Amino acid sequence: EVQILESGGTLLQPGESLRLACVVSGFTFSNSAMSWVRQAPGKGLEWVAAHSRTVESIHYADSVKGRFTISRDNSKNTLYLEMTNLRVEDTAVYYCARRWPAEEFFDHWGQGTPVTVSS
Amino acid sequence: EVVMTQSPATLSVSPGERVALSCRAGQSISNNLAWYQQKPGQAPRLLMWGASTRATGVPARFTGSGSGTDFTLTISGLQPEDSAVYSCQQYNNWPLTFGQGTKVEI
């Protein structure tokens, strides 16, 4: 059974930094591309960042480019999202999602971890 | 960026009815469109990909259609458990983009 579990969400102030983690099981993580997708309160889904099986293909949304870094540790079956210079508008539930093989949509999602940025 | 526009924002329907949810892309995305269902407090669930291919375990009452810029998710014989927000996502171009969602109330 595929399991995806995010952690690290918390309450922070603008300008602070945070690292989210996503631990997976039930599939071969090293063979899977992954993404982070977020959802602000009462809003729609927003794709944030994508990491292919290797570092050769990494993409970011313009809204986070230069502030967020996606990375992975295949030995730990873990995907990370390093977030710096956080803004109020980064407040959202952050989901980790597995990409369908060879296509950029998502067949499995975690339950999400909430990040609140407020002064 | 490909803007995805969904309509209507909200639908109130009765059990057993048939509804059609619209998703329009700002430019052609071929058939590179996915639909997701999201219930309150839950993660999104993949319903459809390639515009019209049902994901594993999705009931046959869910049907997807369209290509290019105009897409439709049709739900026939609505069940109470179909109450949810339905979102479309294009994966033809980076950045990946979602519609704002259609809430279906039963």
Task: Write structural notes for this entry.
- Chain A is mainly beta and 119 residues long.
- Helices cover 0% and strands 50% of the residues of chain A.
- In chain A, strands 2, 4, 5, 6, 9, 10 and 11 form a seven-stranded mixed beta sheet that branches. A four-stranded antiparallel beta sheet of chain A has the order 1-3-8-7, with no helix packed on it.
- In chain A, strand 4 and strand 5 (45-51) form a beta hairpin.
- In chain A, 40% of the residues are buried.
- With 106 residues, chain B is an all-beta fold.
- In chain B, 0% of the residues lie in helices and 49% in strands.
- Chain B has strands spanning 4-7, 10-12, 19-25, 33-38, 45-49, 53-54, 62-67, 70-75, 84-90, 97-98, 102-105.
- In chain B, the strands form two sheets. In chain B, strands 2, 4, 5, 6, 9, 10 and 11 form a seven-stranded mixed beta sheet that branches. Chain B has a four-stranded antiparallel beta sheet with strand order 1-3-8-7, with no helix packed on it.
- Chain B is globular.
- The termini of chain B are far apart.
- Classes of the chains: A mainly beta (119), B mainly beta (106).
- The interface between A and B is medium-sized, with 25 and 23 residues.
